[in-house]
Amino acid sequence: MHLAASKGHGDIAVFLIQRGVEINARDKFGSTALLEAVKNGHDHVASLLMEAGALLGIDNDGTCLCEVVAKRDLDYLRRLLDSGINPNSKNYDFRTPLHLAASEGLFPISVLLLEAGASVFAVDRWGRTPLDEARVGGNKNLIKLLEDAQGSQLSEFSTNFGKQDEGQRVRCTVLASDPRDLKDERSRVVLWVPQSLDELINTAKAQLRVSSANCVVSEDGAKILDTDMISDGQKLFLVRESTLSL
Question: Where's the KHA domain (predicted)?
Fold first, then answer.
């Protein structure tokens, strides 16, 4: 299957799928058949494999995407995104591919990532967003692109995740930890979302016995400005606002 995928032999791939070959098997280099098809630009074979339930099988999606962005390989990046890889995957420094594209001033790649759903609000280990990186780089067109995307994503977030019906009760899980600390598993509490953000913060502080926190953020590290932005079942993090810029 790996050979058929890497060479673009769709008819052989179909035959092997029908024969029940394990489509997610890895070769000695750790690659799956789908990854071989994507690497070599065989979109038809990749589609056949995906329809059969094949997976890319990449160990660290964020590191992989950042490496592809660093190489400025727009075509390979597009094929990976078309194969279902998460554009908001993070590397070891919690940087997304959009962070890297913004820091390098890569406008076409940034457009592609945004179209695939990359978040402008993602925060890296140092608390920087892709827009922060673009502003340091000084590419005016890229800064404008990300500023527009920021407004669009904030509006979409408010629309899609706001309360759907007046009076509908919404729950959230609040953790006494920083979303950038993937290993922090401190206490958490499930709360009904009240009318005001201050009430939510104060209730969470009392339940979690945290005195210094004064704001809540999403998993992307974006500061929650209003309870209408909170969706039912959303995970939030109770933090000190001063840590957001670190």
Answer: 171-246
